[in-house]
Amino acid sequence: MTTTGDVRIAASAWRMLALGVLAQAAGTLVVSTPAFLIPLLHLQEGIPLPQVGVLVAAPTVGLVLTLVAWGALTDRVGERWVIAGGLALAGALTALAAVVGGLVPTGILLLLAGGATGSCSAASGRVVVGWFPRRRRGFAMGIRQVSQPLGVAVAALVVPPLAEAGGIGLPLVVGAVATGVLAVACAVGITDPPRPPRGASVTSANPYQRDRFLLRVHLVSVLLVVPQFTLSTFGLVWLIADLRWSAAAAGVVVAIAQFVGAGGRIVVGGVSDRFGRMRLLRLVAVAGVVGLLLLSAAGAVDWAAPAAILLILTTTISVADNGLAFTSVAEAAGPAWSGRALGIQNTGQFVAASVVAPGVGAVIALVGYPLAFGLVAVAPLLALPLVPRQDAHAP
């Protein structure tokens, strides 16, 4: 038993959190791997970029298509076997993709593997909400949200050199091993949190019929994901193309932004436990508007160093809402509905993110990076009136 602030937390809860982070990171590694195969497939093997782009998108498409279904299954059977089973399936499919050969079969298998990794998204969030007391859930969920940048970072480090040494199969084997090992670890180490009686009407009632809290949080999250994916997609190329940073220096700036953003998720989550999640979410939206406008201004006057600093700060702000919204959705939905609600939450964000690259890319082509960043500030501005006034919890 450990004490965090004035709340005592069982050691087993930290074990669940650690396994949830590693499970989600392993799934993210599988989903992220194709993006780091682009240099090999396009530049060295000459495969047209549109075809490579389809391969890169395949696991994300599979993820989007299965999130709600995995959430519903979690509500019915519990977290342990959903996480372990999904990771085991993802590992098997990724291993097949490593050896099958051919772009189309590989893409189909990665589509299915990406869908299998969706088991971690809702179920690992439910584990955190179930085992941590309400006053420490924001902090715990902030740690849990580090799993995505952790998985991307691992992919960025290991995939390019492995692909150069052994083709696309070798990095896929790494993803298969990682998900396979975590499947066993989660099957052994995760215990489903206590669940209320299945027949209790207060826990089984549809929370979407109770009020509009969940719907509003979903819509706010969709709007706030636009700045996040705009900066993660175009920040690097903006520094290089417009502000004349070297590729290496720009890469360092983006890497710093990712690490600072990961730390920021933990800090914001901890603050939300005392300050209130919706109040803090409103401040994050305001800060997002201000940050994007300042970033736009710095780019317009060609201030390279201030622009890089603002990119780091604005990127950190753009990811700060993720844990707040995720925790709020789970708390408001309750144990009988949180899996489905978290699946809907993630699906909305991934669908929105999928249109950011072509949409914002078209705007950049028309008006340039600085003005495009300023226009993206409209998204968090529109989110402001939609943020609920108070936090909500399941009855």
Task: Provide an overview of this structure.
This protein is mostly helical. It folds into 2 domains: 191 residues, MFS general substrate transporter like domains (Growth Hormone, Chain: A, Up-down Bundle), CATH 1.20.1250.20; 181 residues, Growth Hormone, Chain: A. It is 82% helix and 2% strand. The chain has 18 helices and 2 strands. Helix 4 runs antiparallel to helix 8, helix 11 runs parallel beside helix 16 and helix 12 packs parallel to helix 15. The longest helix has 30 residues. It starts with a strand and ends in a 12-residue tail after the last helix. The mean pLDDT is 84.
Key structural traits:
395 residues; Growth Hormone, Chain: A; 2 domains; two-stranded antiparallel sheet; 82% helix; 2% strand; globular
Helix share of residues? over 70%
Strand tally, please?
A: 2
CATH topology of the largest domain: Growth Hormone, Chain: A
Integer count of domains: 2
Q: What is the count of DSSP helices, taking H or I runs of 4+ residues?
A: 18
Radius of gyration: 21 Å
CATH architecture of the largest domain, please?
Up-down Bundle
Strand content: under 5%
The CATH class of the largest domain is Mainly Alpha
Biggest sheet overview: 2 strands, antiparallel
Shape: globular
